[in-house]
């Protein structure tokens, strides 16, 4: 038996319940993982509110790190005692212990602590596929990145600096601006008191940026489009403020803008590809170019409080649960 967060209906954070669940032995191709840290991601809110539907009742969370307790038949590349993380697979990471398919697990290298890995598995891999696959950055580009002081944002700041990319980041407060700058963001726009597109044009000599990475969605769409140069690209990688609805005629008027809505699952599979993404991320961590520590820590039983903090934009960096 173990404790896990479950929800029986969609809604606000109050629908999250701490329950006792049965955890069996792993079957063929499976392992049992005892979690040390569980990451909280904005996508979890999408599932909780029904924006991304699930069959209910269900668990929540897709991103955690821990230690292998048991392995099932046919699992040969992972053994009891190994430290692992994961970001794909079924919902249910908000738990003390769970059984998982072995083929979604990522071995953690020596020199990367569980606490650091918990901040980096999902968020660092997100930065990897955005910067290295969706719109491959080679160095020298100027980009606009919304929510630069968020969990992915702070990793993106460091990755951009490591690549030699000029990153213009948006944040909601002056305090978050200082955090983003400290992590390598070249220029920071405080969206609560500055016009984003106007400031981007000033910083780029009127030209605009080559690409915008926008995880905010509805509230920043217009500013994102107005910040792009001709034939620029909008990477819509989230909708925290609401869904993005685009009239394609506007894209033509704004300069023949390209738009994509990427998803991790399409970039992190097959497993060999996922492991290569992780290798690139952890190499930068071990080289000291990317650092990750939770900005906020909550007990597993406080998952609802963690969601409220994330939704209210009161968090900085990554948020984790401790089982």
Automatic annotation (TrEMBL):
<dbReference type="InterPro" id="IPR020843">
    <property type="entry name" value="ER"/>
</dbReference>
<dbReference type="InterPro" id="IPR013149">
    <property type="entry name" value="ADH-like_C"/>
</dbReference>
<protein>
    <submittedName>
        <fullName>Alcohol dehydrogenase</fullName>
    </submittedName>
</protein>
<dbReference type="InterPro" id="IPR002364">
    <property type="entry name" value="Quin_OxRdtase/zeta-crystal_CS"/>
</dbReference>
<dbReference type="InterPro" id="IPR011032">
    <property type="entry name" value="GroES-like_sf"/>
</dbReference>
<dbReference type="InterPro" id="IPR047618">
    <property type="entry name" value="QOR-like"/>
</dbReference>
<dbReference type="InterPro" id="IPR036291">
    <property type="entry name" value="NAD(P)-bd_dom_sf"/>
</dbReference>
<dbReference type="GO" id="GO:0070402">
    <property type="term" value="F:NADPH binding"/>
</dbReference>
<dbReference type="GO" id="GO:0035925">
    <property type="term" value="F:mRNA 3'-UTR AU-rich region binding"/>
</dbReference>
<keyword id="KW-0521">NADP</keyword>
<dbReference type="InterPro" id="IPR013154">
    <property type="entry name" value="ADH-like_N"/>
</dbReference>
<feature type="domain" description="Enoyl reductase (ER)">
    <location>
        <begin position="11"/>
        <end position="321"/>
    </location>
</feature>
<dbReference type="GO" id="GO:0005829">
    <property type="term" value="C:cytosol"/>
</dbReference>
<keyword id="KW-0560">Oxidoreductase</keyword>
<dbReference type="GO" id="GO:0003960">
    <property type="term" value="F:quinone reductase (NADPH) activity"/>
</dbReference>
<dbReference type="GO" id="GO:0008270">
    <property type="term" value="F:zinc ion binding"/>
</dbReference>
<dbReference type="Pfam" id="PF00107">
    <property type="entry name" value="ADH_zinc_N"/>
</dbReference>
<dbReference type="Pfam" id="PF08240">
    <property type="entry name" value="ADH_N"/>
</dbReference>
